[in-house]
Write a structure and sequence with these properties.
Length: about 200
């Protein structure tokens, strides 16, 4: 009888320890150029509303050469993506995190590779950007241009995104990279709420 009680207590202790495992996980907080705190939202000119819904426990495999996973941590869920400060998890074995921006000024990085062509993003800092429909000037803006490595990003780019300090994504422009004609504004911010 005593043996059964000791065994039962041991099993309960093991189960409690297993359940408690995730409570010590770190929180990854959003960056100041993408403040995706749960409860925040952004409304855009194309009729979409992007939300930051919650913090969720997440881990990923950072490399195809290793079977190991990162430590679990709590990350915000932004527009259905796990957000690691300025990177979103994209379920790619080669580039598991897609860095959207750095928030630190001028830099360039690879985000993916298609048919041996690298897709890069280049970030520069702008003092301000005007969103005419809101009659608003956003100060301290990161402009991020996505382009193919084989093309000059100043004229031949695919996507250009603008992230404002303490606001997030405020504008997206798209264009055909093989055409130097003007771009199309895909969406601009119309309203937002940061739940910080």
């Amino acid at each position: 009888m005593l043996k059964n009680r000791v065994l039962t207590l041991a099993v309960c202790a093991a189960l409690l320890a297993a359940c408690d495992k995730g409570t010590d996980a770190d929180y990854i907080t959003p960056g100041e150029y993408l403040p995706a705190y749960p409860g925040s939202y952004w409304d855009y000119s194309d009729g979409t509303r992007v939300r930051a819904t919650s913090y969720e426990l997440h881990c990923y495999r950072p490399s195809t050469t290793s079977p190991d996973y990162t430590d679990e941590c709590y990350v915000p869920v932004w527009d259905g993506h796990y957000l690691y400060k300025y990177s979103i998890y994209q379920q790619s074995p080669i580039y598991p995190l897609r860095k959207l921006l750095t928030g630190s000024g001028t830099s360039t990085w690879i985000v993916e590779e298609n048919n041996n062509v690298k897709i890069k993003r280049h970030e520069v800092h702008l003092d301000s950007l005007v969103i005419a429909a809101l009659d608003t000037v956003f100060h301290d803006v990161c402009q991020v241009t996505e382009y193919q490595e084989t093309l000059d990003f100043t004229d031949y780019w695919n996507i250009r995104e603008y992230y404002a300090l303490n606001v997030g994504l405020i504008r997206v422009e798209v264009k055909n990279p093989y055409d130097t004609a003007t771009f199309v504004v895909q969406k601009e911010i119309r309203a937002y709420h940061i739940n910080n």
